[in-house]
Amino acid sequence: MSLKLSKNRVNYLTKLIIDHIQTSEDIDYSGDIGNIRFKIYHLILDELKLFEDIETAAQEKIVSQKKNIPDGSREWEILFRKYSNEELNKLGRNWE
Questions:
Q1: pLDDT band at 95, cuts 50/70/90?
Q2: pTM (2 d.p.)
Q3: Is 96 part of a structural domain of the chain?
């Protein structure tokens, strides 16, 4: 269930966002577009790292159960979602 993106993919997503910012009449920005690109790139990386940390914490909670829960089973998926949401709530965030 991991979400991993290569640096090329993150660069591509950053380029799409920057292109949209530059062509949109609804977005007014000031400052150097290179700095904006840099910030967007690192925001994406930070979100991916956050997702990875939450995923790891949820998996560790599942593995620590007394009962062996097979990876990919319905019960595993339910617990993964529950524990992931708990981790998000600790951070005051919600992805759903």
A1: low
A2: 0.78
A3: no
